[in-house]
Automatic annotation (TrEMBL):
Pfam families: PFK
Location within or outside the cell: Cytoplasm
Gene: pfkA
Identification of the protein by name: ATP-dependent 6-phosphofructokinase
Cofactor(s) needed by this chain: Mg(2+)
Length: 341
């Protein structure tokens, strides 16, 4: 069996470990052959492939990014679609696709599988927001990076007696904010799932300052401020015409300063959270997922993806991964909030 691997959507630490796990298990145990598609679905539609042998994956588990490149190309747009892709697979002698990606990638993979293509999936999102898997690789690394950044923000905040606002990734959910905020001892964590008034935020900030602490506020990029005076509450579009995501930290800082009288600075961590070497936890998880993905190709489990349940790698249908966001439950937020202020 000859398998084409693609990585699609935003990159995240651990992608290379998945590729290595799949290629090593596949070539050594399952008797499979591999090629890589360059830049996600773009490479599939264009037939842009690269060799992926055992020697090509040597030592890559610790490398950030993806050796295959990635893009947000939709395989149904332009010249794409199931027939074009099947033709390209046939022309290159490729029997099956292993798609490593998030919700968009898996949704496309499901449509293509429904049309008869042989595809298996590996879930990927740094935001950890896929309901079908307990954790996604890349999340632990992002939390580690964000926590380290906040530890640094604390020391400069302490020196100047300032409130520091750290904006982290999390388009729809607040998992990175929750975990890094708890780890760094934040005095307030603001996430999209939890409506929080600015009065409440100001109270947490003042209470931390009253106890002689430099307040630390962590905000997920998808948080919407519930404040009438926020002049930018309409997010609108960014300079490229895409829905605006980041910038919430910068918007909150002056409001917090005005409401508390405490000088406030904001820092947006942005793509730093997706760069660099994966943690050991992410390398192990990603490697196990890649190995399991080779196995589900071997058992011809088309339309299935691998997932983590507890400490076990299991198999679930694409449909289970789609349309259901894994949000931060109230009880987890309340638990963290007990330590605020
Ligand atoms: O979905 C992962 C994510 O990192 C989000 O947290 C963030 O909003 C988005 O991707 C950024 O996307 P891009 O890399 O395309 O700017």
């Amino acid at each position: 069996m000859r398998i084409g691997i693609l990585t699609s959507g935003g990159d995240c630490p651990g992608l290379n470990a998945v590729i290595r796990g799949a290629v090593l298990k596949g070539t050594e145990i399952n008797g499979q052959e591999f090629v890589g598609f360059r830049d996600g679905w773009r490479g599939v539609v264009a037939g842009d492939i690269m060799p992926l042998e055992r020697s090509d994956v040597r030592g890559i588990a610790k490398q950030g990014g993806t050796i295959l490149g990635t893009s947000r190309t939709n395989p149904f747009e332009g010249n794409g679609g199931p027939e074009r892709i099947q033709e390209m697979l046939d022309a290159n002698g490729i029997d099956a696709i292993m798609a490593i990606g998030g919700e968009g990638t898996l949704a496309a993979a499901k449509r293509l599988t429904d049309a008869g293509l042989k595809i298996v999936g590996v879930p990927k999102t740094v935001d950890n927001d896929l309901d079908a898997t307990d954790y996604t690789f890349g999340f632990d690394t992002a939390v580690e990076i964000a926590t380290e950044a906040m530890d640094r923000l604390r020391t400069t905040g302490d020196s100047h007696s300032r409130c520091m606002v750290a904006e982290v990734m999390g388009r729809h959910v607040g998992w990175i904010a929750l975990h890094s905020g708890m780890a760094a001892g934040a005095h307030a964590i603001l996430i999209p799932e939890q409506k929080t008034s600015m009065e409440q935020v100001a109270e947490w900030v003042k209470s931390a300052a009253d106890r002689g602490r430099a307040p630390l506020v962590v905000v997920a990029e998808g948080f919407t401020p519930d404040h009438a005076d926020d002049p930018h509450s309409e997010r609108g579009l960014d300079a490229f015409g895409r829905p605006r995501l980041g910038g919430i930290g910068e918007r909150l800082a002056p409001i917090i300063e005005e409401m508390t009288g405490i000088e406030t600075r904001a820092t947006t961590l942005g793509h730093i959270q997706r760069g660099g070497v994966p943690t050991a936890y992410d390398r192990v998880l990603a490697t196990r997922l890649g190995m399991a993905a080779s196995d589900i190709v071997q058992s011809a489990s088309w339309g299935q993806m691998v997932a983590l349940r507890g400490t076990d790698i299991v198999t679930v249908g694409f449909e289970e991964a789609l349309g259901r966001l894994k949000t931060v439950p109230q009880r987890r937020y309340r638990e963290a909030a007990m330590l605020f202020g």
